[in-house]
Amino acid sequence: MPVTAPTSAGPLLQMSGIVKTFPGVRALDGVDLDVRPGEVHCLLGQNGAGKSTLIKVLSGAHQPDDGEITWAGESVALGTPMAAINQGISTIYQELDLVHGLTVAENVFLGHEISRGGLSQRTEARRRTRGLLERLGHSEIPAGREVGRLSTAGQQIVSMARALSRDTRLIIMDEPSAVLDQEEVHNLFRVIRDLTSDGVAVIYISHRLEEIREIGDRVTVLKDGRTVATGLDARETPTKELIRLMTGRDIEYVFPDRPDGQPDAATVLEVDGLALAGTFADVGFRVHTGEIVGLAGLVGSGRSEILETIYGARRASSGTVSVDGKMMRAGSVVGAVRAGVGLCPEERKSQGLLLDQAVYRNITMSSMARFSRAGFMDRTAERAAATELTTSLDVRPSGVDRAVRTLSGGNQQKIVLARWLLRDCRVLLLDEPTRGVDVGARSEIYALVRSLAARGVAVVMVSSEVPEVLGLADRVLVVREGEVVHEGPADQIDEHQVLDLVMEGSAA
Amino acid sequence: MNDNTAASGGALPAQAGSAGLPPEAPRTGRGGAPGVPASPVATFMRSGAARSLGLVVALVVLFVVGIITAGDRFASVDNMLTILRLASVIGVVSIGMTFVITGGGIDLSVGAIVALASVWATTLATQTIANDYHWTLMVTTALLVGTGCGLVNGVLVAYGRVVPFIATLAMLAAARGLAEILAGRRTQIVDVDGFTDFFGASVLGVPVLVIIFALVAAVGWVVFNRTTFGRRTFAVGGNPEAARLAGIKVKRHTMMLYALVGLCCGIAAIMLMARTTTGSSTHGLLYELDAIAAVVIGGTLLSGGRGTIVGTVFGVLIFTMLSNVFTLNNLSISAQSVAKGLIIVVAVLLQQRLAARSTST
Description:
The structure holds 2 protein chains of 2 kinds. Chain A is of the alpha/beta class. Chain A folds into 2 domains: 13-88 and 204-252, Rossmann fold (3-Layer(aba) Sandwich), CATH 3.40.50.300; 267-503, P-loop containing nucleotide triphosphate hydrolases (Rossmann fold, 3-Layer(aba) Sandwich), CATH 3.40.50.300. Helices cover 32% and strands 26% of the residues of chain A. In chain A, the strands form 6 sheets. A 6-stranded mixed beta sheet of chain A has the order 6-9-10-3-11-12, sandwiched between helices. A 6-stranded mixed beta sheet of chain A has the order 18-21-22-15-23-24, with helices on both faces. The two termini of chain A are 42 Å apart. Chain B has a single domain, classed as ABC transporter involved in vitamin B12 uptake, BtuC (Orthogonal Bundle), CATH 1.10.3470. In chain B, α4 (77-102) packs across α14 (287-298) and α5 (110-121) runs parallel beside α8 (164-183). The two termini of chain B are 13 Å apart. The chains are: A alpha/beta, B mainly alpha. Chains A and B meet through β2, α1, α10, α11 and β20 of A and α1, α11 and α12 of B.
């Protein structure tokens, strides 16, 4: 199939008036979208705006109830995922859909294996896979390696190679940068530019406006299942305007004000010479009551592991952790929880929540003793406490009996926070507290964290987003390759300095 | 159910969650609107009662078939008590199995543990001591042997990190082998004063075995649904990593779950000894399959995190009544097995449909 010339201005894809309803919810309510060959078209919208549903319609997973899809000038129906793939539409989902036990080459050709007389041609598959990886600028990934052993970034490249292994003319990327660190994002952008210069169109979804500015050509904004603006210039349209379209608001991240420092504040958390063999060494810092300390660093720099080791989820190879002057037993989560430490883990869904269970059960999970007498749970008291917390945290929709799965990312994060609020914890460890949380709910989470600190909780947070660390934390620790390379007040360092510190030597 | 499907758009109107901002135009009727109570029908459909409803229907259908095909031979008080008595032994094992499966595990060794406990409790030595002192020593022996085997399973799974399937498969082989060695492959007759009198009796016409099953089921239900132990079982089975990071002692709890099944096997062994007045290394053959089948058709998720005691009780009753109806109609054991297989498949297919409808994302 000849690739449409990049100069062609006619739209490759045109969607108009797309409607998709589910029982009780109108997920898409008139979406218009046109994508030109060779462009990066960004989809912007808050969680729940309908981006995911739109992708599913495009990839053939959902059938629209109304509206028209025109592909390369012809009206098409994308009845199945296979139909979409055959048209040349590939989707790279947020949760990468690769088979971990198979090799890179096997994954790339999954579903359209190269075979002769029923026997798979492994050498040929590997040869072609190597070609594709080379085209993506990642020839260092071995075609015979098991995919489960690759990094997330590597797996994403495999997903893209898989898309390219077919005649792909449109690649949909659903928040590809969410799992990548800064350097990997740059790599991803380079790959995207290569693809678009070949005439491949990309629909790019991201919560990060700065990325959209860097990689995008045009922007379509969705709100409440409708297209509210389309064809905006990705570089020229003012941020304020984009935010306003998405939210009806004019502000981006609102960080709560920092209170004046209290020099005589008591030390709550003391970390001394903490090390985890092969991951980080000699990490030491103190967190005072009411203080927020931020850890900045690349993915893989050891920042999440530091949190997990403080929490006892990993056993430190040396060093000590004390809370309120009492030393904690290494490698004991139960001990940490008892001492008043709480962790909001990085992978909220797989590490933090019982998705199919009721909100109140998720909240009281770490406080069962408080709600039980002789082993019997007092469910009335549980529900009452959970209701009080969810109301004060403004969890929407309300109702403590609904399954946590039915809540959006920001509200799920509030549930994890509520669990530790209920315990009146002394130290709160936050790992990527706003991952997968939309702009509006972010500000709420920030305000919540600050108000916790104001109540005397010592907070340690890790975030991939430097502005978040700088905006929220009082003090910043920069971690590079398992070492703390900088420590200082957050208002005395800027984003560029942090990035310099973080990236320096990372190429070595 | 409509509350759950409201999420099927993949996300909820998250903008509703941003506080302190000027409200926009009145929100149109999107699903899951806060504060709107679910209709009673919807609430019922989501509750465990709805899932049990299908089981009740199945049981009623079986009952009607029984009356039509076997008439009074089926629909007599005696026959009903027979069904219940037969159901009670496997029922007790299935209650334990419900716990371990909900907790994310499985126990293939239950039948073998029943056999070992029955043999150990009926050895000449045990019976002599029991006769010298009291028949309850025999009971205690069976309970200890059962719990002990379960504890070994639990330690292997929780602390030895052996996959439950393998650990309990090993116990299946070893426990039955040990039972054969102890019994010398002979059937041991129960001959202890008081034991048979106690367990063979009836209270107000209800056999003691049936009362024991009812008690185990009732206590099981309370522990499962109303205690911290039950709550932890759901947490450990639903997401062990989240449970661990929430400060739950996942390993210890897992170990206790296996010990609990072992205890149930000990109780079942005593009941079997009372019903057959023997202890034998062939007791409890294929109990693991019957128990797992009853638990699964009852509605407990084999992957853990969701379970129901009431469903399990229905599952056990359905299978036992099925056997009874087939036997009364002179149909072979083989035909029963085929029917059982069909029921398992149909039940699981139905459950998947239900589950897909209530949690589609």
